[in-house]
Amino acid sequence: MEAKRVTLFAGHYGSGKTNIAVNFSLWLARQGKRTAIGDLDIVNPYYRAKDSQRELEAAGVRVIASAYANSNVDVPALPQEMYALTENLDTYAVLDIGGDDRGALALGRYVPAIVQENDYDMLFVFNRSRPLTRDADSAIGIMREIEEACRLPFTGIVHNTNLGRETTPETVLSALPEVEELTRRTGLPLRFTAARSDIAARLPQDIGEIFPMELQKTIW
Amino acid sequence: MADKILMKGNEALAEAAIMAGCRHYFGYPITPQTEVAAYMAKRMPKIGGCFLQAESEIAAINMCIGAAAAGKRAMTSSSSPGISLKSEGISYMAGCDLPALIVNVQRGGPGLGGIQPSQSDYFQATRGGGHGDYHLLVLAPSSVQEMADLVATGFDLAEKYRMPCMLLADGTMGQMMEPVELKERQEAPVEKPWALTGTEGKRKPNIINSLALEPQELEKWNEERFKRYDIVRENEQMSQSYCMEDAEICVVAFGIAARVSQNAVDMARAKGIKAGMIRPITLWPFPEKALKAAAQQCKAFVSVELNMGQMIEDVRLAIECSRPVSLCCRTGGMIPSPDEVLAAIERAAEGGK
């Protein structure tokens, strides 16, 4: 798998964008690439990329997030440092976009620079286990809403069907028909299938690129 | 097995309300419960229901009073400061003997507090919250599945006893994502002969009111309402016991605190301490019977809460102060870690506090 200079993860609310963006940044850093992650989520109050700040920075990934992320106030503001993602061309940039069209609105101001540089992958994260993306139809609906909101067309699909702790390889595989329909109808390639590392190890090799992830541990 | 889906607590409770027949939702946005209103805004128009974003929390609760008086399953949701605003209306609702579901996805307080999770509205929920002598049914979910399941339970109990029911969650419960199975319910709706549905000239008008002109009359209403509360106390206490068979130390915790405490109980057991947990599912009525029974065998209790110590009073009352009860708590949006709860269990086991 070859990464573009800028990789963006967008999609439906709760589809797993943050976990993938964090793991993707760590994956880039492990290859010795200078990497930065931008938390562009202006929707979610909890469970954000900033939760992984210590781990990311230990791996050498620069974390750019709102000073108010994970604080006690709800201020959906983005810091000026976010422009480093489009201006520092020697750094691989990973952008974690907020859910749905509302979350994607925040991306708009960075889009002209991303389009001009033209070295990006705009990936739609699809989790068939989410109630509002149970089929290709509804997923495509949300894709179009996001594209309209941020004015950046998708260039690929990331399959991330999961049921949290109860995920099994069958959970992932059961969604393959919808993934196939999604790629066929949008004409977009499946970039990879993301799964928790223990699940990823048990997936068959013929479903394309598999991206194993380590997830945040909770205390409950 | 029905198909499971991955949902946020707030989404799950909203969908569960729709599946339980709720077609009237009145809300106002506030973190960390905004997804309830957002979900209702998307779903209600598609199923012929009513989603209305009111101009304030006060307006929303009064709209609930109207819909409930008309015999509809009405619901509103908010988070701590918003519930304070609704409290006048909740008192009127209790005074009118109206059933409705009020959701509180708690955040830190007092005042504006913060958006991180908390359980510091325990007193407000279990003591009434507004003015006057009244109680709410108070249900405390501790998983996304329970966020969904307790919605239908809440509506059913509210209608059975003609009293408002509060689903007392916290920010973590509202925001966390877990697999959930949404269950279709087949139960017949409760008859509401008291509802304002139009007389069509065939019966005497129903009156729904909390104003009594004569003090004797108001006293009688209050006494009758409290007779009903006695029945609720007798019949509706719900709790879940974990490792209580031979427990010597009893942890009492609800909601997210119970999730953390369960891990701490496992850790204590691994160290040879006979710990167990009682998780209240109804906070009012408080599961006094289960606590009283536990006091027969346990030598100490530990109350784990995301507040400065509120439920601990009910634990002491339930066991009539027959055993020492200590407190393990965090506030401000912080959650006690399993290690902190374990340390509290160890102190209790050593006879300290």
What does this 3D model show about the protein?
The complex is a heterodimer of chains A (220) and B (353). Chain A has a single domain, classed as P-loop containing nucleotide triphosphate hydrolases (Rossmann fold). Chain A is built from 9 helices and 8 strands. Chain A is an alpha/beta fold and 220 residues long. Chain A has an 8-stranded parallel beta sheet. In chain B, the strands form 3 sheets. In chain B, strands 2, 3, 4, 5, 6, 7, 8 and 13 form an 8-stranded mixed beta sheet that branches. A 5-stranded mixed beta sheet of chain B has the order 10-12-11-14-15, with helices on both faces. Chain B has 12 helices and 15 strands.
How is the secondary structure organized here?
The complex is a heterodimer of chains A (220) and B (353).
Chain A: E1 6-11, H1 17-30, E2 35-40, H2 53-58, E3 62-64, H3 84-87, E4 92-97, H4 100-104, H5 111-117, E5 120-126, H6 136-150, E6 156-159, H7 169-173, H8 176-186, E7 190-196, H9 197-200, E8 210-213
Helix pairs in contact in A: 6-8
Chain B: E1 5-8, H1 9-19, E2 24-27, H2 34-43, E3 50-53, H3 57-69, E4 74-78, H4 80-95, E5 101-108, E6 114-117, H5 122-126, E7 137-139, H6 144-161, E8 165-170, H7 171-175, E9 177-180, H8 215-235, E10 239-242, E11 249-253, H9 255-270, E12 275-280, E13 282-284, H10 288-297, E14 300-305, H11 311-318, E15 325-329, H12 338-349
Parallel strand pairs in B: 2-3, 2-4, 4-5, 5-8, 7-8, 11-12, 11-14, 14-15
Antiparallel strand pairs in B: 1-9, 5-6, 7-13, 10-12
Helix pairs in contact in B: 1-2, 1-6, 3-4, 9-12, 10-11
